[in-house]
Amino acid sequence: MSAPKIRATKLDRPILIVTCPRGWEAEARQELRRLLPGATVQSLYIGGNILAQLTVPVEEALGAIREAETVVLAHITPVTMRMQIGGERAWLDTMREAAALHLAPPDPDRTFMVAVHRRGHHEFGSEDVILAVADAFIHGGKPSVDLTNPEQVLSVEIYQDVVFMGMNDARELVCKELKRMRCWAPGERPVSRAELKLREAIEELELELPEGGRALDLGAAPGGWSRELAGRMAEVVAVDPADLDERVSGLPNVTHLRCRTEQLDPEEIGRFDVLTNDMNLDPERSAKLMCELSRLLRPGGLAVMTIKFVTRHRRRHVAEATSVLERCYEEMRVSHMPHNAKETTAVMRRRPAVSGLPDG
Ligand SMILES: C[S@@+](CC[C@H](N)C(=O)[O-])C[C@H]1O[C@@H](n2cnc3c(N)ncnc32)[C@H](O)[C@@H]1O
């Protein structure tokens, strides 16, 4: 395969690529929005990576982030070019050509290195990208390469078929200290990030959980949702083949059924007032299980399910899941909560009569 045609653009507005611990993207987006008013901030498809499109000069944005107390922001890398690539080795030549065409060349009298972060599957490795891209700028040994303490860094951030590049002064790159564990007062640390998703759905959507009722929690481990439910209701049955955190398994009103949802015997577990589902499953499959189990839920009973974006076709996943759920549930509300990362939350009530299902 010869080198494919360049599909690269120099960005109109500068972009920062910001990393954070996986699962902390909502907090990272909030921190960035606070520090960079007017910036467009969005998570990338690959967890722990965020794009901030700036309305102010890069130096100003980096200064604001550098000076601020932050909790979950890690590395901040300015980029000025974006391109589409494929996974074949021939794209190495195209990346070199695009870098030569769209990036300001490094100062030949200052040291230089190429830093590559590659996510996804390619026929080439990061070392191949470093050699290919550096080749665009190193002529006659200038600028000289320094891999430990360079003065200039060409940053290459690869997300499967999208590449961002930026030529940066090493002094400008920002690396923040992570303080995420200090977010929580002793004893207040959530069992999982998921715990916050259910809590915010309950609070923001004003969901009423009957105090004396029973909840069935599918995909419960490590137990954030079960703990939240156990604090508000009389009994929780938590279903998951994985272990529950001991802060949850030790609760007197939580019973852990260590199996997959598909293995449940509906005759054995009784009826419920609330059904929740945070299983890591294809949304359509997950919605079908919600329907199969809807007869365990009392008519009008509350159900909450996260629709997982298992591919980038988010709208399709929501449409497929809701069209299945609508057979058994009504009053459906689908909301993207601040703590939803690659998913969205659907809240609904069991229909009084569910066609094709015996009523409990
Ligand atoms: C995102 S985690 C759930 C987090 C949980 N809600 C919490 O608050 O800690 C997804 C869970 O779904 C479980 N899971 C995936 N497929 C499942 C299935 N078919 N039946 C039951 N659990 C399943 C996984 O074992 C995993 O523990």
List the helices and strands and how they pair.
Layout: E1 8-19, H1 25-35, E2 40-43, E3 49-53, H2 58-67, E4 75-84, H3 91-102, E5 112-119, H4 126-134, E6 152-159, E7 162-169, E8 174-175, H5 193-204, E9 214-218, H6 224-230, E10 235-239, H7 246-249, E11 254-257, E12 272-277, H8 283-292, E13 297-308, H9 314-325, E14 329-335, E15 343-350
Parallel strand pairs: 5-6, 9-10, 9-12, 10-11, 12-13
Antiparallel strand pairs: 1-3, 1-4, 2-3, 4-7, 4-8, 6-7, 13-15, 14-15
What does this structure look like?
24% of the residues lie in helices and 29% in strands. The chain is α/β, with parallel strands linked by helices and 360 residues long. It folds into two domains: 8-175, 2-Layer Sandwich (VC0802-like), CATH 3.30.2130.30; 191-350, 3-Layer(aba) Sandwich (Rossmann fold). Strands 1, 2, 3, 4, 5, 6, 7 and 8 form an eight-stranded mixed beta sheet that branches. A seven-stranded mixed beta sheet has the order 11-10-9-12-13-15-14, with helices on both faces. Helix 6 (224-230) links the parallel strand 9 and strand 10. Bound molecules: S-adenosylmethionine (SAM). S-adenosylmethionine binds next to helix 5 and helix 6.
Main pleated sheet: 8 strands, mixed
Shape: elongated
Q: What is the alpha-carbon Rg in Å?
A: 25 Å
CATH names the topology of the largest domain as VC0802-like
H/E order of the elements? EHEEHEHEHEEEHEHEHEEHEHEE
Got a strand count? 15
Ligands: S-adenosylmethionine
Query: CATH top level of the largest domain?
Result: Alpha Beta
* Assembly context of the chains: single chain
CATH architecture of the largest domain: 2-Layer Sandwich
